[in-house]
Amino acid sequence: MDTTTLIIVIVVLFLLFGGGGGYFYSRRRR
Known about the structure:
The protein is an all-alpha fold. The protein has helices at about 5-20, 20-30.
């Protein structure tokens, strides 16, 4: 796996768990 790919994966996971993903997760849960 390339370093660039690894960075992209980390950023995506960070956004999903800490950014927009958390917002959609909260809305979906209600």
